[in-house]
Design brief:
The protein has 6 helices and 5 strands, in the order H-H-H-H-E-E-E-H-E-E-H. It is α+β, with helices and mostly antiparallel strands. A 5-stranded antiparallel sheet has the order 1-2-3-5-4.
Length: about 180
């Protein structure tokens, strides 16, 4: 299979997310999200309770919640998650799922932020990573698709969201702390 169409589609999704997120509301309100309110609306049904995700299961979950955005298709989804656009890329062939969201343009990253991000990846952003792609900083979560459970999927959405929302402050991937000492 020629990877060019897949890569082109991913780049188009990324550009779309950047434009949506650049025009998003004030990110300083990102931490005002009550996780319990949304978790209740994302409660599993019998389909998700089975171990293992597939592209079909992911799409069913997102459709049922009404958070998919126009332009989504099986294996490539954009969704409105609070005030951010999250993208999910499911690859059944390679058994991987990637969830990403825009954080900031690379030109706006301060030198001290690079150090803070690297430190956070050791003890505060355990399941997500900060990554630069196409001169843009992303909050990224990568997991094996088949081994992912429904609860892990929902948790991953929040981790990516909080990773982006907490950029420039705590850099935590969650509304919880796991510190190693040293601070």
């Amino acid at each position: 299979m020629n990877p060019t169409p897949r890569i082109s589609l991913v780049i188009l999704l990324i550009i779309s997310a950047i434009s949506h997120n650049l025009s998003a509301t004030n990110p300083s309100n990102d931490n005002d999200v009550d996780k319990s309110e949304v978790i209740n609306t994302l409660a599993p049904n019998e389909i998700e309770e089975d171990l293992g995700m597939t592209n079909k299961k992911v799409e069913e979950i997102l459709k049922r919640q009404g958070i998919l955005l126009e332009g989504s298709m099986e294996g490539y989804w954009q969704l409105q998650f609070h005030n951010r656009i999250l993208m999910i890329i499911g690859d059944e062939t390679h058994n991987k799922m990637r969830i990403i969201t825009f954080v900031v343009l690379q030109k706006n990253i301060k030198k001290s932020d690079y150090i803070s991000m690297m430190e956070a990846q050791f003890d505060r952003s355990l399941d997500i990573k900060y990554a630069i792609f196409h001169k843009t900083l992303w909050s990224v979560y990568v997991h094996s698709l088949k081994e992912m459970t429904y609860d892990q999927f929902i948790d991953a959405l929040y981790q990516v969201y909080y990773g982006a929302s907490n950029y420039g402050s705590s850099y935590e991937h969650y509304d919880m702390e796991y510190r190693t000492g040293g601070r």
